[in-house]
Every structure is written in C-alpha cells, then in structure tokens.
C-alpha cells in the first residue's frame, strides 16, 4: 500500500515524495510524505501517512494538509489514533 501511494506521487515532478521506515504506535511503519501536492493541484492536499500491520490487520494513519510542511505535532496527533495494545 505504502509503495503504491509513494509511486503515484513520485511520478509527478512538482511533488516531493519520500518513503521511509518510521515508528508509530510502538511499531515500525512505512512512512510516506508527499509535499507539493497542493501547489500542483489546489483541489488536492499534501499527505503524511503511516502503514503498519498488527496480525492480519493493516492500519493506515494519514494526515492531509495544505501547508508546505506537516505541522510539528502531526505525528503526535496521529498517534492518538493508535489501536489498543
């Protein structure tokens, strides 16, 4: 899933997309960040997303934003959505 999201954004030269391994909800997670989306198409939003599995369940925690960079506390806000341990 993360690779598909990253590949879609990475094909557009106006968008800066990264795909790294991050950490959220106490787990390693695929982290995708795409900025420049809003400048490329004002109807769309930049995105930061974390993907991780817990057993057979795939989780995606995503944050959409219009600013040039995500808010500094975006990751902490996303962590509030973590499933119970």
Strand line-up of the largest beta sheet: 1-2-3-4
Order of helices and strands: HEEHEEH
Give helix % range: 10-25%
Principal-axis shape equals globular
Residue stretches low in confidence (pLDDT < 50, at least 5 long) are none
**N-to-C CA distance:** 23 Å
**Mean pLDDT rating:** 94
Number of strands: 4
Report on the biggest sheet: 4 strands, antiparallel
Rg calculated over all Cα atoms: 13 Å
Characteristic terms for this protein:
22% helix, 85 residues, 4 strands
Report a brief summary of the structure.
22% of the residues lie in helices and 42% in strands. With 85 residues, the protein is an alpha+beta fold.
Description:
- It contains three helices and four strands.
- The protein is of the alpha+beta class and 85 residues long.
- It is globular and about 40 Å long.
- The mean pLDDT is 94.
Task: Indicate the topology.
Elements: H1 2-10, E1 16-24, E2 27-35, H2 37-40, E3 46-54, E4 57-65, H3 74-79
